[in-house]
Amino acid sequence: MARKGADNSYDVDEFNAFLASRFDGLSKQLKKIARFVLDNPVDTALDTAAEIANRIGVQPSSLIRFAQALGFDGFSEIQRIFRAGLVQQLPGYSANYSDRIEKLKEGADDTGSDHPVLNVFIDANIDAINALRGDAAVAKLEQAVAHINGARNVYVIGQRRSYPVAIYMYYMMRNLDVPTYLLDGVGGLLPEQGNQIGPEDTVIVVTFPNYSDQVIALAHKAAEAGAKVVSLTDKLVSPIVKISDVYFLSDRVEVSGFRTVAGTMCLAQTLMIALGMARENAAGE
Questions:
Q1: Interatomic CA distance for residues 170 and 39, integer angstroms
Q2: 110 lies in some domain
């Protein structure tokens, strides 16, 4: 059952976790709706069911079936969860956020500045970084650092927009004298680059939509070999989450089809500085 009680008292994070747990059992069409809800919390809260259905490319009745498959009476109950979440959200997730995005698409400026694109993306990136306060728990950070610091070798992988984060962590760990290898897939050799990964190693995976099949396959291979997997991704239904020993969620904000990267880079920097501090402390003991 979806309901926690007669008042259906989920908060957004609890609902997202519940939805992720039910994701694999949904039909292909209902999975499309689930992905939209997870990726677009503001639009889920503020747009009408008809608008959401049109954006996803389904009939409005499919939203009702989606809600009922999760144990709700209708889609409006799910929207109420996200609307309640907006009240407690960060400033950039205000009710006019979607309006600002739409005006950005139209080339309008609702900020009184000559740079509407700059202002909207600044707000989006600030939101993404601030969201880490709740998403990156101290215990998870410490666990990830322990897996990295205790590894025989560390392998880092990230393709497309994830590559800048991967290369930054590779650069930092090499400067910290951590035995690190960047799996960059040059020459189409990504599968072969992971052949040496073993049970004493740690693999750091950075992956966001559209998730690279080769990256996910390599991560599965590493997990099967007994390696620890630390992942930086965007949502609980990301294909990397299930095989991760530690995972972090970041950069779920999207502006006009462009995803932010600031949150993930901030997270990577945090992990690397924490790793450096851990190694200094160990050397001083």
A1: 28
A2: no
Task: Give the whole-angstrom CA distance, residue 255 versus residue 269.
Answer: 23
User: Torsions phi, psi of 215, nearest 5?
Assistant: -65, -45
For residue range 133-166, list pLDDT tens digits in order.
766 778 889 999 999 999 999 999 998 888 999 9
- Confirm whether 93 is domain-assigned: no
Residue type, 68: Q
CA dist., res. 134 & res. 201, Å (int): 29
Q: Cα–Cα distance between 140 and 128 in angstroms, integer?
A: 18
Query: How many domains does the structure of the chain reveal?
Result: 2
- Tell me: do 145 and 278 sit in the same domain: yes
Residue 69 and residue 176 share a domain: no
